[in-house]
Structure formats: structure tokens, C-alpha cells
């Protein structure tokens, strides 16, 4: 028979059970055994810090109570409890600190906590002077040495950063300040560029431009279906070539032979012999408009890219199509060649950049970081790097694997063209007629240009389709939608004082995407 209890009794018994359960001390930590704790800490010191224990110790007798330390240039007083004793000084990185300056780190005196920054600094300041270092094998650095080793003057230590640097037997061990957020390095100063010549003569948009290797003349291709050759020094027209039946989208002059190559929206790729000013070869194969072309610098190979989503590699002499580079899913807008691997780089309206293996005719790497069409790619003439331009960003990359370097943000327009010179001036030209000039290394935008359109043109005809530096890199030529070619040069009168860099060392936000 179940015995019935009052509610009061049941509650009381429940409380008692709860009380007994939680008042018991079986979950409390056991009292610390001094001997076993000392053994544990000794083992830990030997295993984790054994390799550096010998480094920062120095034994030295101190003067009588209250007197300043003879070796201390700062005149800090010693603690009374340490009078006349032989002490060990230690600067340590992460294990327990003594309770104050001048106290040996033993099992009895250690403080089981990380010190405050002021305590760490006072510990460093109380170290003996560097003179006593000469008499001892085991040394501790003076504060001036600490700062000097860290690459700063004694008085220029930034606030809130404690530095401890110890040196022994030529080995250096540093426990340095908390890492600062990365900041943009100061950009190299570049003189501003100014417009000094406007060349007119084409009857349609000027779509492409190239300078010949001898730097005597340059060539342009236009929507008026003509190719024109101009004298670089005077800007005068030397020759017009006709033969394309639609817009000429790409021109390039060979450094290996007296040939000019052109391509256009008529699907044609032509090779012109400049001794006779006639077409001597056609390269047939593209199924749609050909948007760009480039010559390999060391072998007789021509690469073209097209709206048919492919790039083709041609043997210049035999006109044979060596490879068809397929993989892009939309029009290929730009192609570049180089002697090093990867030898071919393409940018496409499918938002990707592909690095190709020329021998195998296959993709090595596909870069998918851009979110919009990639219409321009440029290779740095000296560094093993390249840049790509898209309406979302200009991005810099490392060869050979296409590792991302940084974004150049701020040119919010459809970027049609990029050019870079050996001084590290990167130029981006856009569909709205704006041109931005950047410092290649830091990504600093040091100049923005928007040249006026040719008189008689609509403001909406402001647009840059192509730009290129001449061989001396002292002139910049742009091909524009107002049917002109504009020539820029560096402003010789500008100095760093008259045109200072309006740069702030702001924190870099290097996003991958």
C-alpha cells in the first residue's frame, strides 16, 4: 500500500534531494599539491621552452636598497625584497611572468597571467644596460637595443605596442608587437599626363591602334573599314589600306618580318606586306567577327580571338590553323601572347580569363573572379604579372597560375582597353571616354582624364576603344569614338611639389571576389 504524504512533505523531500545532490563537493577541484605542481611546471618548461631557456638570463649583483641600478640608464629603483641577492632576469614570450621587474621567475614567484602592456614595458625598461652584456655569455637586451633591432628609434615606439627582443650567441628571438592591419604602401610618384595632339582623318570610330617596333609610325583600324598608317612624330597620314568589308577590330605590326596583321567583323584575318602595301595571306576559319589578335614574340605564330567563342592559333607562313582554343562560352574579346608559360591569355564575355598551354592547345587555368565581361588584358613588360579589365574591377594577377594580387577599384565604367609601361603606369580606357592612370604596384589612381570630344561630335561619342604606349613609353596614344586619335605625353614641368600624391595610408581591403 502506497503511503500518502502531504504536499508539504513531498516538497521538503524534493528540496532535500536537490540539496544533497548539489551541495556535495565531488565536483570541486582537488586542492593543489605544491610538489606535484612544481614537477609539472619543470617538465613543461623543459619540453616547451628548453631550446630557449638559456638565452635571456643574466646574473648580476644589485646595489644597496633604494639606490638606482648602476647599469640602468633610466634610474629605476629596485624592489626592497631583492636587496643584495643574485637575481635572474628573464624576458619571456608566453609563459608566466614574475610579479614585477627584477624578480626571478621561479615556481614561487611566477604570476599565472599575461602581464599588462605597461608591466611588460616596465620589465623591459628595468633590464641591465648593454655594457654588462660584454662580460657575459648570456645576455639581455637594453631597451634601446630592443627598439633598434625592431627597426625603430628609441623614442619612436608606437603607443600601445610592447616590444621584447633578446639576443644570445648570434641567435635572435623576438616577441614583437601585435600585428597592425595591412596598409597601402606609399605609391611611387608619376608625373601627370597631358593631351598634346589630336589626329583626325578616319570617318568612323577608331577601334584599334598599334605602334611599329621602330617607333617611326603607328597604325589604326576603324569602323570606316580602312587601316591608316600615321607618322608618329608629326601625326601626318602616310598611307591608307582598304580591303576589309566591315569594321577593323585589331591591328598589329610584326617585329620579326615586314608584315602587318589585321582582323575585323567581316570574319577575316589578313596579312599585309608593307613593302608592297598589299594583302599576301588570308587566315580562314573563324565563324564570326574577329575581335582581337596578337603575335607570339619568339615564334612565327598568330593568335586571334572571335565572337564564335574560340581563339585560333595560326602558322604565319603556311596559314594553317594549328589549334582552335575552345572552352569559353561567349565571345572572346581579347587575347595576349608571351614567350613564357602560359603563352596565351584570353579574356571573354563569359566573365572568365583563361591561361592556355600553347603546345597542347588546352586550358591550363580558368580564372572566374570577374563578375562581368573581360574586354581587356595587359601583360606587364617587366614583372611576371598581368591585369584584366572589366566593368566590376581591374584585377592584377601573378603568372603562371593566375594567383590574385589585388583589385584596382574606382573606374566605374565599361573598360575597353588597358596599357602599362615599364615605369609602372597602368592606363585604363573606358566606353564613356574616361581614362584612369594607376600606379601598378600599389593600385593608387593618380590621375583621371576625360578629354573633350572633337568639335562637331556628340558628347555621347566620347569613348576610348584602344590605347597603347609608343616604344619609348613617353607617348600614350588613344583610339576614340569621336573618330580621332589622341596623343598624350608626360607633363615635363610637373614636380612632386606641384603635383603631390594625395594619398592616405588607408587600410587595404583586398577581397578575392
From TrEMBL:
> Which spans of this chain does UniProt mark as WD repeats?
199-240, 241-282, 283-324, 325-366, 408-448
Q: Which protein family is it in?
A: Belongs to the WD repeat PRL1/PRL2 family.
Transmembrane ranges, per UniProt, are none
Q: Which domain of life is it from?
A: Eukaryota
Entry keyword set: Repeat, WD repeat
Protein name per the record: Pleiotropic regulator 1
The UniProt entry's GO biological process terms, in alphabetical order, are: mRNA splicing, via spliceosome
What is this protein's function? Involved in pre-mRNA splicing as component of the spliceosome. Component of the PRP19-CDC5L complex that forms an integral part of the spliceosome and is required for activating pre-mRNA splicing. As a component of the minor spliceosome, involved in the splicing of U12-type introns in pre-mRNAs.
Which organism is this protein's natural source?
Answer: Syrrhaptes paradoxus (Pallas's sandgrouse)
- InterPro entries the record matches: Prp46/PLRG1-like, WD40/YVTN_repeat-like_dom_sf, WD40_PAC1, WD40_repeat_CS, WD40_repeat_dom_sf, WD40_rpt
Subunit note:
Identified in the spliceosome C complex. Component of the PRP19-CDC5L splicing complex composed of a core complex comprising a homotetramer of PRPF19, CDC5L, PLRG1 and BCAS2, and at least three less stably associated proteins CTNNBL1, CWC15 and HSPA8. Interacts (via its WD40 repeat domain) directly with CDC5L (via its C-terminal); the interaction is required for mRNA splicing but not for spliceosome assembly. Component of the minor spliceosome, which splices U12-type introns. Within this complex, interacts with CRIPT. Also interacts directly in the complex with BCAS2 and PRPF19.
Q: Which PANTHER family match?
A: PLEIOTROPIC REGULATOR 1, WD40 REPEAT PROTEINPRL1/PRL2-RELATED
Q: Is Cell cycle given among the entry's keywords?
A: no
- Gene Ontology CC entries for this record: catalytic step 2 spliceosome; precatalytic spliceosome; Prp19 complex
Fetch the Pfam families from UniProt. Answer: WD40 (PF00400)
Amino acid at each position: 500500500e502506497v503511503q500518502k504524504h502531504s504536499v508539504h512533505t513531498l516538497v521538503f523531500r524534493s528540496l532535500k534531494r536537490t540539496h544533497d545532490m548539489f551541495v556535495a563537493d565531488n565536483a570541486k577541484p582537488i586542492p593543489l599539491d605544491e610538489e606535484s605542481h612544481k614537477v609539472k611546471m619543470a617538465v613543461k618548461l623543459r619540453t616547451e621552452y628548453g631550446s630557449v631557456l638559456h638565452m635571456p638570463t643574466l646574473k648580476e649583483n644589485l646595489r644597496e636598497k633604494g639606490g638606482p641600478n648602476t647599469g640602468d640608464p633610466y634610474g629605476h629603483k629596485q624592489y626592497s625584497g631583492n636587496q643584495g641577492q643574485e637575481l635572474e632576469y628573464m624576458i619571456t614570450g608566453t609563459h608566466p611572468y614574475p610579479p614585477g621587474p627584477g624578480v626571478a621567475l621561479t615556481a614561487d614567484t611566477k604570476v599565472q597571467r599575461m602581464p599588462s602592456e605597461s608591466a611588460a614595458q616596465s620589465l623591459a625598461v628595468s633590464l641591465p644596460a648593454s655594457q654588462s652584456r660584454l662580460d657575459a655569455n648570456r645576455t639581455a637586451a637594453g631597451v634601446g637595443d630592443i627598439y633598434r633591432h625592431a627597426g625603430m628609434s628609441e623614442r619612436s615606439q608606437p603607443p600601445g605596442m610592447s616590444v621584447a627582443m633578446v639576443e644570445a650567441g648570434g641567435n635572435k628571438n623576438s616577441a614583437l608587437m601585435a600585428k597592425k592591419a595591412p596598409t597601402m604602401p606609399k605609391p611611387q610618384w608619376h608625373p601627370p599626363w597631358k593631351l598634346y595632339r589630336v589626329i583626325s582623318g578616319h570617318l568612323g570610330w577608331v577601334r584599334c591602334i598599334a605602334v611599329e617596333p621602330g617607333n617611326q609610325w603607328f597604325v589604326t583600324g576603324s569602323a570606316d573599314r580602312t587601316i591608316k598608317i600615321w607618322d608618329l612624330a608629326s601625326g601626318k597620314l602616310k598611307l591608307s589600306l582598304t580591303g576589309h568589308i566591315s569594321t577593323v577590330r585589331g591591328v598589329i605590326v610584326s617585329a620579326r618580318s615586314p608584315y602587318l596583321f589585321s582582323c575585323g567583323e567581316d570574319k577575316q584575318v589578313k596579312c599585309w606586306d608593307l613593302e608592297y602595301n598589299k594583302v599576301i595571306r588570308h587566315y580562314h576559319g573563324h565563324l564570326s567577327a574577329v575581335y582581337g589578335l596578337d603575335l607570339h614574340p619568339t615564334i612565327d605564330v598568330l593568335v586571334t580571338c572571335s565572337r564564335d567563342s574560340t581563339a585560333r592559333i595560326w602558322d604565319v607562313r603556311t596559314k594553317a590553323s594549328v589549334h582552335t582554343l575552345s572552352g569559353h562560352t561567349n565571345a572572346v574579346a581579347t587575347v595576349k601572347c608571351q614567350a613564357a608559360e602560359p603563352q596565351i591569355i584570353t579574356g571573354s564575355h563569359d566573365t572568365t580569363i583563361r591561361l592556355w598551354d600553347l603546345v597542347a592547345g588546352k586550358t591550363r587555368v580558368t580564372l572566374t573572379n570577374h563578375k562581368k565581361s573581360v574586354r581587356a588584358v595587359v601583360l606587364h613588360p617587366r614583372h611576371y604579372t598581368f591585369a584584366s579589365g572589366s566593368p566590376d574591377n581591374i584585377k592584377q594577377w601573378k603568372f603562371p597560375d593566375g594567383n590574385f594580387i589585388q583589385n584596382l577599384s574606382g573606374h566605374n565604367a565599361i573598360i575597353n582597353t588597358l596599357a602599362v609601361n615599364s615605369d609602372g603606369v597602368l592606363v585604363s580606357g573606358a566606353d564613356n571616354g574616361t581614362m584612369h592612370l594607376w600606379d601598378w604596384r600599389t593600385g593608387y589612381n593618380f590621375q583621371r582624364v576625360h578629354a573633350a570630344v572633337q568639335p562637331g561630335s556628340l558628347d555621347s561619342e566620347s569613348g576610348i576603344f584602344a590605347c597603347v604606349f609608343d616604344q619609348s613609353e613617353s607617348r600614350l596614344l588613344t583610339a576614340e569614338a569621336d573618330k580621332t586619335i589622341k596623343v598624350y605625353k608626360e607633363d615635363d614641368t610637373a614636380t612632386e611639389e606641384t603635383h603631390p600624391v594625395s594619398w592616405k595610408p588607408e587600410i587595404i581591403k583586398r577581397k578575392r571576389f
